[in-house]
Design goal:
Order of helices and strands: HHHEEH
Structural class: mainly alpha
Number of helices: 4
Shape: elongated
Distance between the termini: 5 Å
Largest sheet: 2 strands, antiparallel
Strand content: 5-15%
Number of strands: 2
Radius of gyration: 15 Å
Helix content: 25-40%
């Protein structure tokens, strides 16, 4: 099986075709709304928010985030990668939104 996980050592890099930090920050401003001023002044919160937005974009593009190292078989999405500690049993997995939207779901049993 080919390793389909993304390497996200720094969200400010162009990794797997993703945006530069300034574009991610523009998206963060929209996502965080009224909380942007507080988060943008706290480096730890800002980096965490960048990480989560980048990871969400990877999932929506069918790219397995680097920290998704556990394989779990879900009723609707099949065997998929999730992050260690993902709640189980669960009715939904991180890929369910992709399934509903017709977006790609990289399954663990894909070659």
């Amino acid at each position: 099986m080919t390793d389909k996980r993304a390497s996200v050592s720094s969200v400010s890099d162009r990794s797997e075709g993703f945006e530069t930090q300034s574009v991610v920050d523009d998206e963060l401003k929209k996502t965080l709304g009224d909380d942007w001023d507080e988060v943008s002044n706290d480096p730890a919160q800002l980096e965490a928010a960048r990480f989560l937005v980048t990871e969400a974009k990877q999932v929506s593009n069918g790219i397995i985030p680097e920290r998704y190292t556990q394989i779990t078989d879900y009723k609707f999405c099949g065997p998929v990668f999730v992050y260690k500690g993902y709640p189980q049993p669960a009715n939904n997995c991180p890929w369910c939104l992709n399934r509903h939207a017709g977006l790609p779901i990289p399954r663990a049993d894909d070659d």
